[in-house]
Design a protein that fits this description.
It is built from 2 helices and 7 strands; from the N terminus they run H-E-E-E-E-E-H-E-E. The chain is α+β, with helices and mostly antiparallel strands. The chain folds into 2 domains: 89 residues, no CATH class; 34 residues, no CATH class. The strands form 3 sheets. A 3-stranded antiparallel β-sheet has the order 1-2-3, with no helix packed on it. It has a two-stranded antiparallel ribbon with strand order 4-5. Strand 4 and strand 5 form a beta hairpin. Pfam families: CBM_14 (PF01607). It comes from Danaus chrysippus (African queen).
Amino acid sequence: MKADRDKHIIEKYESYPFRYEQAVYKKPLREHEKKPQDLSNVPGVPGVDFPIYHSVPETSFSCAHVPIHPGMYANVETGCQAYHVCHDGREGHQGASFLCTNGTLFDQTKFACDWWYNVDCSKAIEHYKLNADPRTHTCQSRSPKNCKKNRMAFTIGSHMISVSVG
């Protein structure tokens, strides 16, 4: 009896008419030859003046060893070409990993990739503490109330620092 009722309901509704034809793959008119990467416009010598990784390599970097969460951290084992965003652990022990384009390195003072000759990677770890500076890193919460509630103040030298803790 239930099957008859269900059949009646199904027959009552018509299916939507098919509106779109599936796209058909068209092969390109001519194949593009694979050329080696052109670094002629990048100042310096690749592999000498700056690293040339094509993907983020596996290193010993761990978000467990950095002072502030959330934060952005240069990976000095990659010559600062790679950097990590450490937050709540969603991306694993290294956080979300990113790679600066060839010829650029992650500048820990600017939290951005910059030309290799503008970045002193040897001082990156000294600048990890800049992640605590509220002028460069503000609360990321969707609710302003959470930003006020989850703040902690502490003093470094003569500077009072306020950071997000949640």
